[in-house]
Specification:
Blueprint lengths: L1 H17 L1 H13 L3 H21 L3 H14 L1
Helix pairs in contact: 2-3, 3-4
Length: 74
């Protein structure tokens, strides 16, 4: 049990490293929140992207990796 938790935590750290761009983007979206209309246009585009990615891969862990890969490519 404890070992599995450690392994999962390690995987999460790895995902964070590969998702640096994703995190920066999230921060940018948070900043855009103050400019409401800009945030809305950004957000709808963002939702469309993620919905496509998550439809392709239902597995949560895999879809997280796929979305990171997808965002990094664009």
């Amino acid at each position: 049990e404890a070992f599995q938790k450690k392994a999962k935590a390690g995987a999460k750290v790895e995902d964070k490293r590969s998702c640096r761009l994703h995190e920066e983007r999230s921060m940018n979206l948070t900043l855009l929140r103050s400019k409401r209309w800009r945030f809305d246009s950004e957000h709808s585009r963002w939702r469309r992207t993620t919905s496509v990615v998550f439809t392709v891969s239902h597995d949560r862990h895999v879809s997280a990796r796929v979305s990171c890969f997808f965002i990094n490519r664009h």
